[in-house]
Design goal:
single chain, alpha/beta, TIM Barrel, 8-stranded parallel beta sheet, 3-stranded mixed beta sheet, 16 helices, globular, binds iron/sulfur cluster
Amino acid sequence: MPMSLIQPAFRVHIDYDKCHKCGRCVQQCGWSVYTFNGRPFPDDSRCRACHRCVTYCPAHCISIQKNELALRENPNWMPGLRQNIWRQAESGGVMLTGMGNDKPYLSIFDHLVLDACQVTNPSIDPLREPMELRTYLGCKPDRVEVEPNGRGGFRVRPGTGLEKNVRLDTPIMFSPMSYGSVSLNVHKSLAMAAERCGILMNTGEGGLHADLYPYQDNVIVQVASGRFGVNPEYLNRGVAIEIKVGQGAKPGIGGHLPGEKINREVSVTRMIPQGTDAISPAPHHDIYSIEDLKQLIYSLKEASGYKPVGVKIATVHNVAAIASGIVRAGADYVYLDGFKGGTGAAPSIIRDHIGIPIEIAIAAVDTRLRAEGIRNRASIVAAGSIRSSADLAKAIALGADAVAIGSATLMALGCHLCQGCHTGNCSWGLTTQKPELTRRVDPEWGAERLTNLVHAWSHELQEILGALGVNAVESLRGSRERLRAVGLDAQTCEILDVKPAGR
Ligand code: SF4
Ligand code: SF4
Ligand code: SF4
């Protein structure tokens, strides 16, 4: 076999003076990096820097280092581009990857700062005063009507009819991740944590495993183009239904779950043949216009007793017009998935080069819906690399009602962002269906970590609200005057409708 030109990306270094020769690293590595012959021997070329072995080595004697090969500098032909050409010259195939965009695009969130009260407008101490994080997704009344109550006082009631809403005790949801792309134990962890936090998890492309039925009041069921697992019972189990049109990591293309991940249980849950690749087509074959989308929204409402229906789209150039059409088609929320959103598997060329940042999309959509007088008809959920409670607060200030987090939840469960999800070998037992790996996640342990994460971000959000002098997350929504830009150009500030710092 001809020699590969690809050099290992990482070097596995073992300090054999400290090594106990226990073999635990051999068991822990999902990518079979190690062989054991009296002591562990690593094959560097297989290592993905997932750090499972490093974490579990009792002697702390393993280190993973970048393989710093000195290539001649060429800012045009960066080392990654050269590696990709060698790789594709060997494989002739599309390069797949997992997790989110890793290109050094500007992070707009990192160039926005929040306001705080000083002197004349008092801040609020969230430890001493109530702070409301609860929010509702769905159509809100446009106005309230005030009328005499006959006893000398007034009665206030919604001026327009109340639609079914979905309650979130804190403005965070778990992003869609299908059973198949992640393990059942990950789904159970998410469902249990969603119930404890009063929030929602999402089935991803469909199929709801029977073990999750007890948590169905905290589950959004998704209808994707492949219609995996979709039947009337499935639709009626979720608290809301989500039509997946697009995904931030791979706008405009369909999904692909490799056959190795379709075991018997995944096959039953998703209603697809065992061992065959699950391909979701790029388009829904019954949606070619906003009218078609409207038809599907109302079919799903009709089939589910008029549950809220959301529509998830990838953020692309004309996202504001698309969102406007979705709201006019009757959706209760629009889920915007930015171009840094995670994925279980995507062509790296699509993931890294298609779509627009979530910050721009939130602002553009919120502005458009306000301008058209339809902002109250639907909520905005923002996703695509929400990394901290600061990103959460800034997303809400830009106009989102709530955010969805996916990569952060996997990181809470151990993920080290090695980008190998598509291989099914995840050492942390997350994006795999191999029983010897999936059992590494105890759902009780996972639920506790996810609950801690959501509680921690919620506490931090309360601190931020207090500093801003507002006592409800609803008061922050769309308050772009509480944001300032640092180091963003004038055009970006104009689109965001955010002033530069100092003004
Ligand atoms: S886990 Fe650590 S101590 Fe055990 S064999 Fe591997 S390197 Fe040595
Ligand atoms: S792939 Fe992960 S577990 Fe395996 S050697 Fe590399 S860091 Fe260790
Ligand atoms: S989920 Fe697993 S395979 Fe995917 S990036 Fe994280 S550690 Fe790697």
